[in-house]
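Database export, one record per block. Field names are fixed; values are copied verbatim from the stored entry.
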Amino acid sequence: MSIPGLIIAIALFTIGIMGTILPALPGAPLIWLGMFIYGLMVKFTNLPWTFYLGQGIAVLLIFLLDYLAGVWGVRYYGGSKTAAWGSILGGILGIFVFGPFGLIVGPFIGAVGGELYHRRPLEKAFRVGFGTLLGFLGGTALKITIELIMIIWFFTAIM
């Protein structure tokens, strides 16, 4: 076991979880990087390539969830494809306009704007925007769950 490697890994795990909640940082890749750096420091003892492959698949699953959660919320609440694209674009632009809070507000505004563009009633547009928020929050909860499983797997593998 490498104490410096463990300290670096735990620091990156913490920053990674924070990055999932405050999306200015790439959460899952930082968690994976912490595991990889630890592996380098112990010459990959107890951490075979299958471990890293499984962890990489978990990271890809998190990226997929990130994309699909908001889109699912839009579609579940009857939103159009334009609203789905609006939520994605709103998420990207929202970060620049509102900072980290923009990742919550931006998709809502984008989905509502997409529905209004299709001349949907304001009430329906807001319902679709609310669906985007639910999708985002549900997706965040799932991502944190997967990241915690990744971290537990890591500690189980090195003990």
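Remark 1: The radius of gyration is 18 Å.
Remark 2: Residues 122-158 form the longest helix (37 residues).
End of record.
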